[in-house]
Amino acid sequence: MQRLLVALALVVLAPAAMAGEADVVEAKAQRGADGSYRFDVTVRHADTGWDHYADRWEVLAPDGTVLGTRTLLHPHVEEQPFTRSLSGVRIPEDVAEVTIRAHDSVDGYGGKTLTLRLPEG
User: Fold this and answer.
1) Which in 41, 91, 108, 113 has the greatest CB count within 10 A?
2) What does the pLDDT look like over 24-82, one tens digit per residue?
C-alpha cells in the first residue's frame, strides 16, 4: 500500500516538478520622452497550470537593486514562449545595463537571465 501511495504521489507531482525554471529568452528596452523605460521581455517556462507557472520577471541594476517588476497573473500553458511589457521603469543615470530575471511559482529564480545594454538618449 505504501508503494502505491508513493507511486501515485509521483504521478500527480511529476508534471509540476518537470516544468523547470523560467528563462528569459529575449528582451528589448525603449527610453521614453520622460526618461523612463519600457521593457518587452520574452519568457519561456513549461507552465503546467496554476500549480507551476512563470509568475513574474524583474529588471535589476548591476548591484542587484530591483528597478521594476512585471507580475504575471496567470499561467501561459498554451503560449510559449510569451512576451509581456512593463512601462514607466526609472533607471538611475549611472546605470548603463540591466539584468532581467524570471521567477516561477515553484522553483523561484534560477533560470537563464539576460543582461541588456540600455539604449542612449
Assistant:
1) 41
2) 999 999 999 999 999 999 999 988 889 898 999 999 999 999 999 999 999 887 788 99
Relative to beta strand 97-104, strand 54-60 is antiparallel
**Whole-angstrom Cα Rg for the chain:** 17
Q: Does domain 2-117 have CATH number 2.60.40.150?
A: yes
39, 89 contact by CB (below 8 A): yes
Instruction: Tell me which residue has cell 542587484.
Output: 64
* H-state helical runs in the chain: 2-18
In the chain, where are the structural domains located?
2-117
HSE-up of residue 85 (Cα within 13 Å, Cβ side):
8
pTM score: 0.81
